[in-house]
Amino acid sequence: MHHTILITGGAGFIGSHVVRLFVNTYPHYQIVNLDALTYAGNLENLEDIQDKPNYIFEKGDITDEPFINKLFEKYKFDGVIHLAAESHVDRSIMDPLAFIKTNVMGTATLLNAARQYWKDDMKGKLFYHVSTDEVYGSLGEEGFFTEETCYDPRSPYSASKASSDHFVMAYYHTYHLPAIISNCSNNYGSHHFPEKLIPLAIHNIKNNKPVPVYGKGENIRDWLYVNDHARAIDTIFHKGRVGETYNIGGFNEWKNIDLINLLCIIMDKKLGRAPGTSAQLITFVKDRAGHDLRYAIDATKLNKELGWTPSLQFEEGLEKTVEWYLSNEQWLDHVTSGAYQEYYSDQYQKR
Ligand code: NAD
Ligand code: DAU
């Protein structure tokens, strides 16, 4: 039973869902959310749980070794769920070094702190590293990524995540650090930063702005509702086997252009627009450099070993996501205006 858990990147998209799930499901756990509050970190994502007695926020950088060591001393963590990362492929093409710093050095810094802090008693400890299906590279028209697929990262983002995965397994084999990795497909849902395809398209359609589709829109992604990813992380954290990796995905492949067309239909319906109105905003733009063609996860191991299955069909999840964005205009306004970055200082000055 883990009592004090460090969750990194808890102010981000997936991290905030994981923090909320753990804080609400396990009132007897102490959850410490460590986040540097980069452009992607937003404490408004956690407004509903910020005053819970089993929740603590710590602002800090995972690459800051003295700070991380002090944090381990202070809280005596017995579990780590590591999500903090630079996460956007397009940004990694513009600024690869930022990705190497946070994703590689930051992960190694956390691993090293855990190794030092746990070295005399590894029993009951767990370092859970949250990773991506992008480490496996790009698929052709057939086949799936399994846990046995060789790593073949092709973007600076995926190379940095692949490297961090290798360090996790190196620490497991070399120092017997109890570690687990999961590799998940594309997430969607509430609180998703509007630089990524689905929230960007929702935002642009709502504001009658062009919806940029890279290349011909023929790239394929395998989409999973973010709450289902958080549930999978909960399952793996509590029931997964140390030293293993688990693939997480929804068997839900969509060509980008088909996904955007479906989203346009939902948006027309929700906004009371005539059918076909939103689709007129679709604009084909220059392709992403090195754009991976297709991702598709085989999540059989997670299903067979640990009994996890996704809870939502994509059409239902996408509709719920659109509804969330349309009824949380303030969240989106704060993100697009930059006001969300003042939330932290406002909140903490009040205390
Ligand atoms: P995100 O960009 O929304 O959030 C990342 C969070 O990490 C932010 O709150 C940010 O402030 C924080 N952070 C960044 N650098 C930091 C640093 N140096 N120190 C401390 N905190 C820092 O990302 P996300 O989409 O929620 O992804 C979370 C994790 O899940 C990442 O590791 C990502 O690789 C992985 N993942 C994401 C997806 C997806 O579809 N979004 C799919 C599979 C795996
Ligand atoms: O597969 C998991 C990965 O999914 C995660 O590891 C990453 O952190 C996450 O960002 C996501 O990566 P993608 O590159 O697949 O997501 P993104 O939303 O940026 O793009 C989805 C697809 O849509 C991709 O084929 C590129 C395309 N695209 C994206 C944007 C932002 C467009 O056509 N237009 C756009 O404006």
UniProtKB/TrEMBL annotation:
InterPro entries xrefs: dTDP_Gluc_deHydtase (IPR005888), NAD(P)-bd_dom (IPR016040), NAD(P)-bd_dom_sf (IPR036291)
Lyase listed as a keyword: yes
Per UniProt, the keywords (alphabetical) are: Lyase, NAD
Q: Which GO terms describe its molecular function?
A: dTDP-glucose 4,6-dehydratase activity
Q: What class of enzyme is it?
A: lyase
Q: Which SUPFAM superfamilies match?
A: NAD(P)-binding Rossmann-fold domains
- Residues of the NAD(P)-binding domain: 6-321
Q: EC no.?
A: 4.2.1.46
Q: Gene3D superfamilies recorded for this chain?
A: NAD(P)-binding Rossmann-like Domain, UDP-galactose 4-epimerase, domain 1
Query: For this protein, what reaction is catalysed?
Result: dTDP-alpha-D-glucose = dTDP-4-dehydro-6-deoxy-alpha-D-glucose + H2O
| Pfam families cross-referenced by the UniProt entry | GDP_Man_Dehyd
Q: Which cofactor does it need?
A: NAD(+)
Q: Which GO terms describe its biological process?
A: nucleotide-sugar metabolic process
Ranges annotated as spanning the membrane:
none
Q: Which family does it belong to?
A: Belongs to the NAD(P)-dependent epimerase/dehydratase family. dTDP-glucose dehydratase subfamily.
What is the recorded name of this protein?
dTDP-glucose 4,6-dehydratase
Organism field: Chitinophaga oryziterrae
